[in-house]
Amino acid sequence: MKKYLVYLMMVLSAFTFNACGDDDPMTEEPGTEQPETPGDSTDNPDNPNNPDTPAGNSNILVAYFSWGGTTQRMAQQIVSHTGADLFRIEPVTPYPEDYTECTEVALAERDSNARPAINSIIEDEAWAEYDTIFIGCPVWWWTTPMIICTFSESYDFTGKTVIPFCTYASTYRDETLARIVELTSGAKAHLEGLGLTSGSLSNESNVENWLREIGIIE
Known about the structure:
By secondary structure, the chain is of the alpha/beta class. The protein is built from seven helices and six strands.
């Protein structure tokens, strides 16, 4: 009987430890994206081959914020399957390239409910042409980066269908997707979003299958 009680206490202790771990703010790293190869041409907004300015050739827009390149990879996979236009949400004041410094800035913005200014805008005429808007970002400090709030509050989503997506390290995927929906509550409709880890992005069928399931592609 005593041996049984000892085993039971060990199991309960392990369960309690794991449950508390989710409350540790550093369990979920605030910047889920790790920097990729510096100078990667696909991550350089000044590269003429980088399609991060809406061309107005589609009625679908993929708008995304990416710090280390992971969310950008997911955005570009969506574009490759849908032919959507791509818009990179960039802050006027760039986030620090150093990971730790970036997490500190991100936390300060979240705690102050900041609205970081965005470097460029989508013109009204171009915005009017889109009826489906994908909005994506990494999970930072359990939610969207605050620049997603800036973007969402800068445009009228009346009559639009919004589809959230995000990249994450381990948790808070669903909370981040829900936050994007909340920020675009004026939209006509919201389709089921998708969150992927960096490793999951290596299998492009994850994005393709999702797009097919929500009726964006056949």
